[in-house]
Design a protein that fits this description.
Distance between the termini: 51 Å
GO molecular function, one term: protein serine/threonine kinase activity
Structural class: alpha+beta
Number of helices: 10
Protein name: Protein kinase domain-containing protein
Radius of gyration: 23 Å
Keywords: ATP-binding, Kinase, Nucleotide-binding, Transferase
CATH topology of the largest domain: Transferase(Phosphotransferase), domain 1
CATH superfamily of the largest domain: Transferase(Phosphotransferase) domain 1
Length: 442
């Protein structure tokens, strides 16, 4: 028994009940912050949902820290499985298998949405594919919301993972960037968009990109449809119906996505058709071909262009390892968990200094909702709101240019805004001041 993972608010352990013989493993999730109200919300949410792709809630309570702080915990069904992106890569999963897994996740969301609840953090890292029967299990309901639950997300922020944020949530931040009291309300359509991002990422190895924002004739910010090509344009031979369903989940207008039930039915029908079209011996073929080279060199060129743009603009680029894409690239594993030794219950919490209980002012996992104000030397729009050159965008009082870079690589080189990466435009790059101190090496 020992640690099995951790997130922003909790640590998960593989544990056994001392009173049971033989003992059956369970998942024990312990709050890192004392009296974290998110745990009571998660307990309530899990108690309302009964679905084979959602871990069963077995128990809940509180644990007394040696420093005399109280940490809530919950006990769930243990899922012996592999993270979604790892599973797809390790098993050379067929197209039919991938479609069935996504259908199971859509069914789990259907059960959740039937309770008026929203998961708010659907992504590959929160999905395990169970070893015993290859069933997809949706996990980590700590960010979820249900009717009557307390609001813990401060105005101007959102809950979830930036790369999976819906188009309407990004558009809300753009339209209300000057209103500090504006509060976005998550809906089932946000979960469906995140499922679409998961599907796109699973199939292509890249994240879908939104189009550049623009103002309509009334001056209201709008977003066009997805700027990225459909998955079928990246992965030749992808089933057209499957391709269309992924694009459907990523539609800018929420009503165009349909419901979780409708998507689940369509995915199940597609899986059945694929099963009839392909024999078992050929199931691995679609995902073993070589068309992955396309995204690899595209990403290499994008990274090269970013380095040149960063040097031209004079903004510092943080050192980081180059991440090369694969057809099913995995999300990062929390540091320190690979091959770690068994530790005692509450070890993660005991390393946290005693703090006061969180309240509504404590932000949940969130991304930047607005771009920062213009920095010294950054170009600004003229009186008519226009930037110096075509293709530059006037946002938050400054001029910005969209960078062809994955959102997960944007940090340190630009800013993530409306699910895209933007870099500042200098007002006079030919006469910019040196960025290094006198006498410092180049």
């Amino acid at each position: 028994m020992g640690p099995a993972g951790h997130g922003v608010h909790g640590a998960v352990y593989r544990a056994v009940r001392a009173s049971e013989a033989p003992s059956t493993p369970v998942a024990l999730k312990l709050a890192l912050l004392p009296r974290d109200p998110r745990f009571s919300r998660e307990v309530e949410l899990l108690s309302r949902v009964n679905h084979p792709s959602v871990p069963r809630l077995l128990d809940a309570g509180e644990w007394q820290h040696p420093a005399d702080t109280t940490h809530p915990y919950l006990v769930m069904e243990w899922v012996d499985g592999t993270p979604l992106y790892d599973w797809a890569q390790e098993h050379a999963s067929s197209e039919e298998q991938v479609v069935r897994v996504l259908a199971q996740l859509a069914r789990a969301l259907e059960a959740l949405h039937a309770q008026g609840a929203v998961h708010r953090d659907v992504k590959g890292g929160n999905v395990l594919v169970r070893h015993a029967d290859q069933r997809a299990m949706l996990t980590d309901f700590g960010s979820g919301i249900h009717p009557g639950a307390a609001t813990l997300t401060p105005p101007g922020s959102f809950t979830g993972t930036p790369a999976y944020r819906s188009a309407e949530s990004s558009l809300f931040s753009l339209r209300y960037m000057w209103d500090p009291s504006a509060q976005y309300e998550d809906k089932p359509s946000d979960d469906l968009y995140a499922l679409g991002v998961t599907a796109y990422r699973l199939v292509t190895g890249t994240y879908p990109e939104l189009s550049d924002p623009f103002r309509d004739e009334m001056g209201t910010w709008q977003l066009g449809e997805m700027a990225s090509p459909p998955p079928g344009a990246i992965v030749p031979g992808l089933d057209p119906q499957f391709d269309a369903l992924i694009v459907r989940m990523l539609r800018v207008h929420p009503e165009d996505r349909g419901t979780a039930r409708e998507l689940a039915e369509a995915l199940e029908q597609t899986a059945e058709q694929l099963a009839r079209q392909h024999s078992p011996a050929s199931h691995a073929a679609p995902h073993e071909a070589a068309p992955r080279r396309g995204p690899t060199w595209v990403r290499f060129m994008a990274a090269s262009m970013l380095l040149m743009l960063s040097a031209w603009a004079g903004w510092e680029v943080r050192d980081r390892s180059q991440v090369w894409p694969s057809f099913f690239r995995t999300e990062s594993t929390p540091p320190g968990l690979e091959g770690s030794d068994t530790v005692g219950l509450g070890d993660a919490a005991s390393r946290m200094p005693p703090v006061e209980s969180p309240d509504a002012s404590v932000p949940e996992m969130m991304s930047m909702g607005t771009l920062p104000p213009p920095r010294p030397g950054q170009a600004t729009p003229d009186a008519k709101g226009r930037c110096p050159r075509q293709g530059q965008l006037a946002l938050n009082g400054g001029c910005w240019i969209r960078l062809s870079l994955e959102r997960e690589d944007c940090e340190g080189s630009g800013y993530v805004f409306t699910n895209q990466c933007y870099g500042p435009v200098l007002s006079n790059p030919q006469r910019r001041q040196p960025t290094s101190e006198p006498g410092s090496p180049p």
